[in-house]
Design goal:
By secondary structure, this protein is mainly beta. Among the domains are: 146 residues, 7 Propeller (Methylamine Dehydrogenase, Chain H); 82 residues, Macroglobulin (MG2) domain (Immunoglobulin-like, Sandwich), CATH 2.60.40.1930. 2% of the residues lie in helices and 46% in strands. It contains 3 helices and 67 strands. The chain has a 4-stranded antiparallel β-sheet, with no helix packed on it. The protein has a 4-stranded antiparallel β-sheet with strand order 2-3-4-5, with no helix packed on it. The two termini are 23 Å apart.
Length: 781
């Protein structure tokens, strides 16, 4: 984030608690070099309230609802939070600050001055989990209930004062929840219900903490403790069922609604105003001051509650943090409103495909070794910033498959796609829903054997003749084809590998040859001579053997074809390239070439040789994006010798360093990264291009107004055009080479100065000069 943007953001952040948030922009508003997340907003884990806002925490960030104008805003790592995996939030009226705790012990404090990170717990040399489970504030002090003890924080100077290890003999113990009275501190822990006098001389001394016996069972585990009308209320985790106790007249009583709790687990216990609120299973109980059930919320009409938190606001409106339906507001008797910002309803994203400005997501997962995850979340797509999901409850075909791991778009119909399931077959889907499922009953696809139900499809691709090629794992005919007339055919491997071999991703080269990933067994290359004879084909398996592939590692994870027709291969020891894929069936030796690069230590090595390269995608300028298993994503020059960018969890809003797939929107240059913690995107520099200029070449922003410090893009250019920008008198101001179909200008002249107010001409031409174009940019200073 550049200095000016940062300054402007922090100034606007002050309005977070005082004024209205700006409405989130459309997808097309994402500026070059900026990020956005595509993460669920429907799972709310906790609520806080300010004067005119409800702040809802999700595992991925905050959702802020303005009660005055009913606007909503996301706040996540893109906006300044330091992490993902939120587990606790607390609002401090005294400091006008929000405290945010994470599963890894990280802590953020948001104030009108901006975002302040307190990483001390996360960085502490403590064995085991450091998760922050609960936060309470008391004046200038915040107490953090962690998986090892209690951390005392000074809010104003954001410094850790002390850490209290209050388990037996001063050992670490999980602190699940805290409650403060005027004189006492209560801690619900894995070692029972503990308490201490707030005026004790040293609360870090475990001897000042005492155990309060509740049930007489010495192995009590408590996860909530609150005080409701002078009664202490605690929730005990007791194996298969939770038990709620309250202290009445010095005696512990068990509490249960007349018909019993809705589930064995109480999701939360909270006091709000005069009410005790208990979320249990699929209903919310509202308890009065006499510990009687005042009423129950059993439905949202429509929708079934799964409350993770709830509270009454200052106007006595009930708000519910729901596990699936987002932020829920009670509007009246049996009337509820679910408030959700658009987004996928889960963070599962494994395979990606983009066509016609539409992103398709395959949300399943299959391990490299072949095991299923049994994810049945249907499929998603995003169009114009709006997300749509089709599920098994809407289409029975989706209930008969699991683990959609790959999705490809029909080149002739961008509203139609083919979803490959690692269990159950292949499904034809559209933007309107499921069209058809193919399995062993209506196609040449087959199960692994007659004795199990594992029909595994690893990928699909459509060739230049409209034939859809489908990989079918662990069968004797691993490659099937669906012809345009609806007929199916299947092919053997020609004896190049056995029937137990897994078969996954499939791509085409410039000769319609099929390159197929065989996890742990190299690459299978196939070319049919005719579809009329399934025995007439060429097949070859490429391995680590010299003369027959020379792969860096037999464990291949990714394949891609670039604009030169080269085949790039990602393995567990980096990258290799087949520069002459057309020679694979020549009968001659063919080997992949490794790219020699200068490493950080100055020595020479092979490109990404220490990385497992899980994804490869080529942008409009023929640069390569590489996704890795441990180190995030790399953008390399077209020849792979120069690192242009490297994004990971530490230096970007990337949610994880484990990249599953990468896809690029050629129209906008937006790069999407599917990770094991969800989906994120970055507006890249390169767009798709052709051999001619488009009719609607334009610059944006245009005009360039005072104070603008971002990039200026000229879009719709011929591929890798030579671009010159001059003033009206023909003086050269800037020149560059387009990134695919888009030229990027930083808004400075050749000497680093901002141009004066006026009209500037943009001249674009291809290499041989037979494609030219002129457009204009207005600068206002």
């Amino acid at each position: 984030m550049n200095h000016i943007f940062r300054t402007l953001y922090l100034l606007s952040f002050f309005t977070f608690f005082l004024f209205a948030f700006p409405i989130t922009g459309k997808a097309t508003d994402l500026a070059i070099g900026q990020w956005r997340h595509h993460l669920p907003n429907n799972t709310i884990i906790a609520l806080e309230e300010t004067t005119d806002r409800i702040i809802a925490a999700t595992p991925y960030g905050l959702v802020v609802y303005n009660k005055l104008d009913k606007s909503m805003e996301r706040i996540n790592k893109v906006d300044g939070l330091s992490d993902f995996g939120l587990t606790a939030i607390a609002w401090s009226d005294q400091h006008n600050a929000m405290l945010i705790g994470y599963e890894n012990g990280n802590l953020d404090i948001m104030t009108p001055d901006g975002f302040h990170n307190v990483p001390d717990i996360m960085q502490a040399s403590i064995l085991g989990s450091k998760q922050i489970n609960h936060i309470v504030t008391d004046g200038n002090t915040a107490l953090l209930a962690c998986d090892f003890g209690i951390v005392e924080l000074n809010i104003s100077d954001r410094l850790i004062r002390d850490t209290w290890f209050i388990g037996p003999d001063g050992s670490m113990v999980n602190i699940n929840h805290l409650w403060l009275t005027d004189t006492m501190i209560y801690a619900a822990t894995n070692a029972g219900l503990l308490f201490a006098d707030q005026d004790a001389p040293n609360l870090a001394d475990f001897r000042n903490w005492h155990r309060l016996e509740v049930s007489g069972n010495g192995n009590e585990v408590f996860n909530y403790v609150v005080s409701h009308h002078n009664r202490l209320v605690v929730n005990r985790i007791d194996g298969s069922a939770d038990i709620l106790y309250f202290l009445d007249g010095g005696e512990w009583q068990t509490f249960s609604p007349p018909e019993g709790f809705d589930d064995n687990t109480n999701r939360f216990v909270r006091t709000s105003g005069d009410h005790l609120l208990i979320g249990s299973g699929f209903r919310l109980y509202i308890i009065d001051k006499d510990m009687m059930v005042k009423r129950e919320v059993t439905g949202y009409y429509p929708g079934t509650p799964r409350p993770n938190d709830a509270r009454y606001d200052a106007e006595n409106t009930l708000w519910i943090a729901d596990d699936r339906l987002g932020l829920v507001r009670e509007r009246g008797p049996q009337s509820y409103e679910s408030i959700i910002l658009s987004g996928p309803d889960r963070d599962n994203a494994y395979g990606l495909a983009i066509a016609d400005n539409r992103l398709w997501v395959a949300p399943g997962f299959a391990a490299y070794g072949g095991s299923n995850s049994w994810i049945q979340h249907g499929y998603y797509f995003m169009e114009n910033g709006r997300w749509t999901r089709y599920s098994r409850t809407q289409f029975p075909e989706l209930a008969e498959i699991a683990d959609i791991i790959h999705i490809s778009v029909d080149p002739g119909n961008p509203k139609r796609a083919y979803a490959s399931a690692w269990w159950g077959g292949m499904v034809v889907v559209t933007t309107d829903g499921v069209v058809k499922r193919y399995d062993e009953t209506n196609s040449t696809l087959r199960k692994r054997s007659d004795s199990d139900d594992y029909l595994r499809v690893g990928g699909t691709v459509m060739d230049s003749q409209g034939n859809l090629w489908v990989t079918n794992s662990e069968v004797d005919r691993p490659l099937s084809v669906l012809k345009p007339n609806g007929d199916w055919m299947s092919f053997t491997s020609g004896g190049t590998f056995g029937t137990q071999t897994r078969v996954r991703e499939i791509i085409l080269d410039d000769f319609d040859q099929k390159w197929i990933n065989l996890p742990g067994n190299g690459i299978f290359v196939f070319k049919e001579n005719t579809l009329e004879n399934t025995n007439d084909f060429n097949a070859r398996r490429l391995t680590t053997q010299a003369g027959n592939g020379s792969l860096p590692n037999i464990r291949v994870h990714s394949l891609a074809r670039d604009h030169n027709g080269y085949i790039w291969v990602g393995t567990e020891e980096g990258v290799a390239v087949f520069y002459s894929p057309g020679r694979v069936f020549s009968g001659e030796a063919i080997d992949a070439q490794r790219i020699i690069v200068e490493q950080e230590d100055g020595f020479l090595g092979y490109l990404l040789e220490s990385e497992t390269v899980t994804a490869i995608t080529v942008d409009g300028s023929n640069k390569k994006w590489f996704g890795t298993e441990r180190s995030g994503a790399f953008l390399l020059s077209a020849d792979g010798r120069e690192t242009v960018r490297h994004f990971n969890k530490s230096n970007s809003p990337m949610p994880s360093n484990n990249i599953f797939d990468i896809a690029i929107n050629g129209q906008t240059g937006e790069v999407f990264f599917a990770t094991d913690r969800g989906l994120v995107s970055y507006r890249g520099f390169a767009t798709a291009a052709t051999t001619r200029h488009k009719d609607d070449v334009y610059a944006y922003p245009n005009p360039v107004r005072p104070g603008y410090e971002g990039y200026i893009a000229v879009k719709g250019l011929v591929r890798n055009a030579n671009v010159k920008i001059t003033d009206i008198n023909g003086n050269l101001v800037w020149e560059t080479i387009a990134e695919g179909g888009q030229a990027i200008w930083n808004g400075r002249d050749l000497f680093g100065r901002k141009p004066a107010t006026g009209v500037y001409l943009v001249f674009s031409t291809n290499d041989d000069g037979d494609e030219t174009m002129v457009t204009k940019i207005m600068f206002i200073n």
